[in-house]
Amino acid sequence: MDIELRGVAAAQGWPAPGCRCASCGRLRAAGVRHEPFTAALDGVALEDLPRTDVPGGYEVLAPGGGRALVAAGPGARPEPSAGVEYEAVLLDMAGSPDHLGHLRRVGAVTPGTRVVAVHLDHRLSSPSELERRTAFWNRPEHGPFRTLLLGGSRSGKSAEAELRLAACPDVLYIATGPVRDDDPEWAGRVAAHRLRRPAWWRTAETTDLAGALAAATGPVLVDGIGTWLAAAMSETDAWQEPSRVEPLVDGLVAAWRGTAARVVAVSDEVGLSLVPTTASGRAFRDVLGRANQRLAAESEEAALVVAGRVMELR
């Protein structure tokens, strides 16, 4: 199927007329404008092709016989017809990248399906940000491939980790933090994370992170290394004698190096804040800082997330 994109933006175009947001401002300053979405398949305009409406969009049949699934607009999540494998899907990847994971999960999108992002607008900071994300979403599902994401509190590191795996059909989310039923604030954080994740992702609450990495083969998200280390230090009574936790850290690094999974792990960057005032706080900072270095050295990718923006670490 030959796809000619004559416009890729949402209905008002990108930048949107009169919009003062930073995304539209950048494009306007650069003299760039993306026209509203329209396309041709095998040389025939989309609106002239045989169409079947589906929830969230429509299917079209190209002159060459291939089928395409098209999102109706920003936020739309077109549902596939039963048993159909599409030659192309034209989706709102700016707002609903996890819908691609759903389509892959049900078999409507295969490795041979062409995935095209349409209805683009200022939900993206820039076209280059879409390119950055598309590289993650087109990556093979299986590993080994390791990504370490570092950041401070509320930096956006967990959201970035989820974004990188959003288009996968099946993800194992490993939560290493303790269950705190008596802490409403902590329960709220956990609930917010769950709502942000696709419903079909599996969740494992465990501190046996080395064992989980050894057993995994597909996409895995670990959130996070800092909470795992806190549990490990309590388990080994290492708060006053940090050397006691080193065998567990060694085991984690070995499992990270040897995993067959495509794994994205979140960890706290602890080297940029004030020196902790307690011996136990300094011990945790030092052990986690060294563990981050060792994990980064065994990672294909590492990045620092600051104020929701990502800096790749080379």
UniProtKB/TrEMBL annotation:
<dbReference type="GO" id="GO:0005524">
    <property type="term" value="F:ATP binding"/>
</dbReference>
<keyword id="KW-0067">ATP-binding</keyword>
<dbReference type="GO" id="GO:0043752">
    <property type="term" value="F:adenosylcobinamide kinase activity"/>
</dbReference>
<dbReference type="InterPro" id="IPR027417">
    <property type="entry name" value="P-loop_NTPase"/>
</dbReference>
<protein>
    <recommendedName>
        <fullName>Adenosylcobinamide kinase</fullName>
        <ecNumber>2.7.1.156</ecNumber>
        <ecNumber>2.7.7.62</ecNumber>
    </recommendedName>
</protein>
<keyword id="KW-0418">Kinase</keyword>
<comment type="function">
    <text>Catalyzes ATP-dependent phosphorylation of adenosylcobinamide and addition of GMP to adenosylcobinamide phosphate.</text>
</comment>
<comment type="pathway">
    <text>Cofactor biosynthesis; adenosylcobalamin biosynthesis; adenosylcobalamin from cob(II)yrinate a,c-diamide: step 5/7.</text>
</comment>
<dbReference type="Pfam" id="PF02283">
    <property type="entry name" value="CobU"/>
</dbReference>
<comment type="similarity">
    <text>Belongs to the CobU/CobP family.</text>
</comment>
<keyword id="KW-0808">Transferase</keyword>
<dbReference type="InterPro" id="IPR003203">
    <property type="entry name" value="CobU/CobP"/>
</dbReference>
<dbReference type="GO" id="GO:0005525">
    <property type="term" value="F:GTP binding"/>
</dbReference>
<dbReference type="GO" id="GO:0008820">
    <property type="term" value="F:cobinamide phosphate guanylyltransferase activity"/>
</dbReference>
<keyword id="KW-0169">Cobalamin biosynthesis</keyword>
<keyword id="KW-0547">Nucleotide-binding</keyword>
<keyword id="KW-0342">GTP-binding</keyword>
<comment type="pathway">
    <text>Cofactor biosynthesis; adenosylcobalamin biosynthesis; adenosylcobalamin from cob(II)yrinate a,c-diamide: step 6/7.</text>
</comment>
<dbReference type="GO" id="GO:0009236">
    <property type="term" value="P:cobalamin biosynthetic process"/>
</dbReference>
<keyword id="KW-0548">Nucleotidyltransferase</keyword>
